[in-house]
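Below is how a single chain appears once it has passed through the pipeline. First comes the sequence as given, then the structure the pipeline wrote out for it. We keep one example in the README because the format questions we get most often are answered faster by looking than by reading.
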Amino acid sequence: MRIKFFLILLLSFTGIYAVDIIDPAGKKVKEGVRRYREGDFQTAQENFRSAGKSFSEKEKRIPFNEGTAEFKLNEFDKAIQSFTKASETDDKELKAKSLYNLGNTYLKKGEKLQAMKSYLDSLKADSKFEPARKNLELLRKEEEKKQDQQQNQDHKENEENEKNQPKPDDKKNQSNKKQKSSDEENNSEQKQDESGLTKEEAERIMDSARPDQIKRRKKLTKRGNNDFFW
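Resulting structure:
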């Protein structure tokens, strides 16, 4: 079954973020918007990047636009940098959308746990942001299904191992192998996976993505509790 994920492209909500300034930089943004809508993402990216040189670092709409053009160009590492930069804002809507698009970009790279973390951060910025909630739920179900399959596979392997118990004279060697395997497993638990997360961090993200935890976050937000940790 193919899972659909939502991407907030700039046209999905209020259109590409425009800047109401009639100057060369503002014109660059307008040109970038026009080029983006025409499907010329490379030129759009160049215009947004050029415009960004004239704006203050506090203006986060420009890196958001850059990130969206970079996403369309499959330049995912650049898009991650742009959306991360765009998320460093006090604008609630822009922050939620930037973190959401960041999650979509990680998803394109196959880094699902990082995507889940970004969706959680998006909901932390705006608990009513439904696209992030939907994608998070889809990913959580997919990850739980994968874990169930792995557990079933491990169970089958254990049954096979029990059928092939070593002979008495092989027990010592087998015990040494088991000890070595156990040591390697313990050492690997603290190592980071391909997404840069440790096993403990990954488990915390999965636990935070449970529906009851998300609902709890929403309830606490209504009560004015801003200290809840995802």
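The radius of gyration is 23 Å.

See the next section for the split statistics.
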